[in-house]
Amino acid sequence: MRVDVLGLQAFVSIAERGSFRAAASHLNLSQTALSHRIRKLEEALGTPLFLRTTRQVSLTAAGTTLLPRARRIFEDLGSALDEVRVDLREGDEQVSVGCLPTIAVHCMPAVIAAFAKRHPGIGVRVHDNSASEIADKVQSGEAEFGVTIVAANRWDLELKPVVKESFVLLSHRSQPLASATGLSWAQLQGEPLVRVSAETGNRILIDDALGARRETLSWRYEVQRVVTAVSLVRAGIGYAIVPQLALDTIDDGELVAVPLRSPSVTRTLGIITRKTVPLRPAARDLLSLLSQALKRSVAARRDESK
Q1: pLDDT for 261-304, tens place per residue?
Q2: What are the pLDDT digits (tens) for 194-226?
Q3: CA separation for the pair 192, 115 (Å, rounded)
Q4: Quick check: 89 pLDDT over 60?
Q5: CB 14, CB 56: distance < 8 Å
Q6: CB count, 10 Å around CB of 241?
């Protein structure tokens, strides 16, 4: 049976006021319309809810049973509507975005500063997660859009490529390979290398590009995140393969990025959104600022390497 909300509303109003006339006035209805709603509800339930006399209206046993339950329905409905209003208000006050950790550290501070000038009343929530986690958050609606590695896409997400960046060898200045202007992967054989977990998008790209030759390299250390790999390089323990933009986030003068070739490995960064859900104006503005910042950063690095 469908829930007769209008009938329940009429029932509660009559029961609380003890009068069809008072209830009709409260609901801004004619007494005829009110009586029609009650009759439909009683027919649906198969039992009368009121005992009517010329002097008063009282509840039947069924009406007495129904009244507290009907009140609870409207209380729950009111609470649900209040929660939706709060969620909408909070959504208007905050933009949520998924972003790879290297991009979050490199681009987001300046982007958020520019966004804050344009939208001083709107906050930004950054989910700095892995590529798969970013896709999950966008898919669930927890993030309005994500900045991630372009890879196999999910059917309900739309992905637009923005920039392409190279992977480089990260070295401490004191290490022998730091002075090279460029290296082939074959020249890395026997060198202590740090690699990132196989669960990350960066690792998948490198493994796919190298194929069987990756087994000829000395992957002596393995970590979960690029920032940890960088810390090992800074300590002089070994070399790491990282995205070019990662150097901007940790360049303190001790570290050097050496271009790699044969093969040259790159990753394409793009924006993912839900196909059927348009972005709010503030989210579109943040996306535009972030895309522009990515393009400028990659172009600057490309010019430096020429």
Answers
A1: 989 899 899 999 988 788 888 889 999 999 999 888 887 766 66
A2: 988 877 788 888 888 888 888 899 999 999 888
A3: 42
A4: no
A5: no
A6: 24
CA atoms within 13 A on the CB side of 212: 0
Compute the average pLDDT of residues 79-102: 75
Write the DSSP symbol of residue 143. S
Identify residue 296 by its one-letter amino acid code: R
272 forms bridges with which residues in the sheet?
146, 159
Q: Whole-angstrom Cα distance, residue 230 to residue 251?
A: 10
Pair 115, 143: CB distance under 8 Å: no
Q: What share of the chain is helix, strand, coil (3-state, %, to 5)?
A: 50, 25, 25
Q: Would you place residue 151 in the very low, low, confident or very high pLDDT band (cuts 50, 70, 90)?
A: confident
Peptide bond into 263 cis (omega under 30): yes
Q: How many CB atoms lie within 10 A of CB 91?
A: 14
In this structure, are residues 247 and 106 in contact, taking their beta carbons and an 8 Å threshold?
Answer: no
| Amino acid present at 265 | V
Euclidean distance between CA atoms 97 and 107, whole angstroms: 13
CA distance 215 to 221: 14
**How does DSSP classify residue 278?**
P
CA 27, distance to chain mean position in Å, is 43
User: Whole-prediction pTM value?
Assistant: 0.64
Encoded tokens for 148 = 């991630």
